[in-house]
Amino acid sequence: MAALAPHTASPTVVIRAARGSDGPALRRLAELDSREVPTGDVLLAETDDELVAALSVSTGERVADPFRHTADVVDLLAYRARGLRT
Length: 86
Prior knowledge:
Blueprint: E1 13-17, H1 23-32, E2 42-47, E3 50-56, E4 62-64, H2 71-85
Antiparallel strand pairs: 1-2, 2-3, 3-4
């Protein structure tokens, strides 16, 4: 009998730098969160090829999808941003 791999509820998170082509998705996310688009160099977090959070490396401004559990994802973005600033 083959062993089954354990099921995880945690999605894969991709953290990357924002590019110009991310503008529309970033504006939609900011609107959804009722905030302004973060300025300067921005890091994005994606799950299942969807933008779920963004954070400005220089200012710490952030936006996140209010309809998803994103606190851990935002923490990952902040951790990565701290590494880029040092």
